[in-house]
Amino acid sequence: MKRIYLSWLLLAISISISSKSMQDMSQHDHHHESGSHSKHTAKMHGPIGLMGDHFHKKGESMVSIRYMKMSMNQNYFNSRKISDAEIIQLPNPYGMPKNLSVVPQDMDMDMIMLGAMHAPTDYITLMGMATFNAKSMNLTTYQPMMNRNALGDFTTKSSDLSMLNISALLKIYDKDNSKFHAQLGIKKNIGKNALNSQVLMPMGNIGSVVMPYGMQGGDKSLSLLSAITYTKTYDVWKIGGQINSQTNIKNNDWSFGDSDQLNIWVQRDINNISAWSLRVKVQDIKSLDGVDKNIRAPVQTANPLNYGGQTVSLGIGINILLPQGSIGLEAFKPISRDLNGPQMGLDWSLQAGYHLSF
Q1: Alpha carbons 174 and 306: distance in angstroms, whole number
Q2: Which of 65, 148, 172, 315 is the most buried (most CB within 10 A)?
Q3: pLDDT tens digits, one per residue of 301-330
Q4: Are the beta carbons of 104 and 138 closer than 8 angstroms?
C-alpha cells in the first residue's frame, strides 16, 4: 500500500514538471487542429475499463452498460509457469488423497455491469452499479496414487447477480484543465457462496461437491471502496492517474482479499469523435480471509492461500462519440505477475461499454 501511494506522489510530481513541455509538444504537433475540437471530445471519459474516472456538473446524469470477458489458460506458482505434473505432486492440505489430484486447465468469466451517475451538486456525483457474472472452468482429474494417470476432464459453471455498489465522487479541484476528485462508497456482495457442481472424483466416480471459492457467485461480504483520481488535459492529449482500494469490513465465513490498484493512462484525440488510450494497471490483491469448511476438494482452488498476488497489465483502448452517447473498447494483457501459490493467471481481458449522458 505504501508503494502505491509513493507511486501516486511521483506521478503528481511528474505531471507538474512535465506540464509545460507536454503543452508545447501538443501545440507544435497539432496547431492546425486547435479550435477545431468542441468542448466535448471522446476523451472526456477515461478508458472504458476505469470506474469513477470523472464527475458531473449539477443536474447531469449518466447511464452505462459494460461487458467484460476474462480468459485464463495457464497455471502459475508465484511468477513461474507450472505444469500439471508439478501440481499433482503438491500436498493436499485437506488430507486424502495425499496430493492434489484435480488441476484447472482454463477458465472464462463474463461480466455485465449496469451503472448510473447523477450529480445533485457541482461538488458531489453519486454513482451506483450492479454486476452480473458467469464463470466456466475446465479441469482434469488424475489418479490419486501410483502412476497418476489422467482419468478425464469435466467442466464446472456458475452464474449470479454478484454485487451492488454505491459511491459518492467528491470534487476537490477543477481548474486550468486539471481535475482532482475522491471517491468513497460501499460494495455489497450478494452472490451465492455455497454453489454445488458435479465433478469427476479422483476415484473415478461422479460426485457433487461445494465448488471452490473462485467459482462461487460471491462471498456475501460488505466492503469499503475508496479512490483518488487526477486528470490533466493538454489540447488533444489527456493524462491521468487513479488509486483505488477495496477493504472488507464485514464477512460471514470467508471473503475475497482486500485489494489496491494503481492506474496510469494517457489518451489522445484521433479526430473530433474518437480517441485512443494506453493504460498501465498495477494490482495487489490479498489472499482470501477465512475458510468454508465444506470446500475441501483436492484442487488448488480449494485452498484460501492460493488466491491473490501482484499483477501488472498493459491495456490499449478507443472511445468513439455517437450522435447519442459514446462507446468504448479496451483490451488488456498482463506483462508481469507474482501470484500467491499455484493458481491460474489471467491471459487476456476485453471490455466494451456504452455511456449516455443527459
Answers
A1: 43
A2: 315
A3: 999 999 999 999 999 999 999 999 999 999
A4: yes
> What nine digits make up the cell of 159?
452464474
Whole-angstrom Cα distance, residue 45 to residue 89?
A: 49
Which letter does DSSP use for residue 48 in this model?
T
Helix or strand run (H / E) with residue 153: strand 150-175
Q: Dump the DSSP string for 275-301.
A: EEEEEEEEEEEPPPEE--TT---SBGG
The C-alpha cell at 139 is 479441469
| Other CB atoms within 10 A of residue 312 CB | 14
Return d(Cα 328, Cα 309) in angstroms, integer: 28
Q: How far apart are CA 113 and CA 322, in angstroms?
A: 20
Instruction: Name which of 281, 292, 357, 278 is nearest 323 in CA terms.
Output: 357
| More reliable by pLDDT, 26 or 144 | 144
The structural domains of the chain, ordered by start, are 2-357 (2.40.128.130)
Instruction: Of 355, 352, 345, give the one whose Cα is nearest residue 71.
Output: 345
Cβ contacts of residue 146 below 8 Å, gap of 6+? none
